[in-house]
Amino acid sequence: MTATRTAPDAGALDLRAGDLVEVRGEAEILATLDERGELEGLPFMPEMLAYCGRRLTVHKVAHKVCDTIGRSGMRRMERAVHLTGARCDGGAHGGCQTACLMYWKEAWLKRVEPGGPPERGTPADPAAAPPGAAVPERRDGSFAALGAPGSAAPPGPASGRRLLPLIEAATRKEPGPDGEERFSCQGTEMLRAAPSCLPLKDVRQYVMDVRTGNAGPLFVLRALLIGLFNRVQDRSRRLPGWLRFRDGMRWGFVAGRLTGPTPDGALGLRPGELVRIKSKAEILGTLNQDRLNRGMGFDEEMSRYCGRTARVLSRVDRCIDERTGRMLTMKSPCIVLEGIVCAGAYTVSCPRAFIPFWREIWLERVEEPA
After folding, report:
1. Whose CA is closest to 99, among 369, 296, 352?
2. Where in the chain are the domains?
3. Can you name the residues that pair with 57 across neighbouring β-strands?
4. What is the pLDDT of residues 302-320, one digit of tens each?
5. Assigned CATH topology for domain 252-365
């Protein structure tokens, strides 16, 4: 049986959004990992090696995470943060294009004072780091560019000889019954890394959101009220239809109507093109009753961006299914839009900042401003 290594409480960094930290070196990180390349169930992934010795700011404190595997709600995460711009480039995971904002245990970081000298052999300036290693990201969690798969820099020669084989081996699960390759990453192992549910009524999470600078008081209060509304709506589905409000739908009120095949609307969009996200009514007209268009979901968080204008950042055709670890290949690529991320407004201020995928039929080209 594999023992899970736990980080000691002593020396906790008590980080907040905006704090400057330095990612520890490979040898220091290796000393924190168990035989599976994990700390408290959270894998340290090969894509993270490029950041060793780098200085970044804390984007948000990852004290909670939404469960995308079991749909159990929010789960509690301990001693972890997201770093600004540190998204996975999928280089060690079959070129997955989900671009998740990676989780960093505090034990892998050290606090530094702004303007302080770097330790010997560590680059203090992002420009000194390997090209393509970081994903430029704005303070609000949106982003301007994604790293290319495989862009991560190799680790240092000494510690890398021990660390890299360990964490590379951990990127694969046992093959499926049909022999299909299955991947393991922070996303697929999230239920082990965040093993306990975080009840909506636990007010400490909202205090933590504000205290750490993850969100302002009004945003947190609004997210809490929406969470309470959604809880009531979920339970109301057991009632007769005439007693339900909006048929028990969650806040955002996304419901598809189609019963047959859903429509296609390929535009052949390319990176850099300017588009407008269609109205919610137009998008709902393309969804079936499971809120899917040809297998791709549209949710309440995405509906907040309806009517917004954005540039196409990339086309996406492959991503890892976090439930199974299998690589999903899309028959028709989806679109990633610059600056559009899940803000957690309808998911109790979740700091995960997922990048949503958009069907082209949900978008329309916009003329460039003169």
Report:
1. 352
2. 20-197, 252-365
3. 20
4. 999 999 999 999 999 999 9
5. SH3 type barrels. (2.30.30)
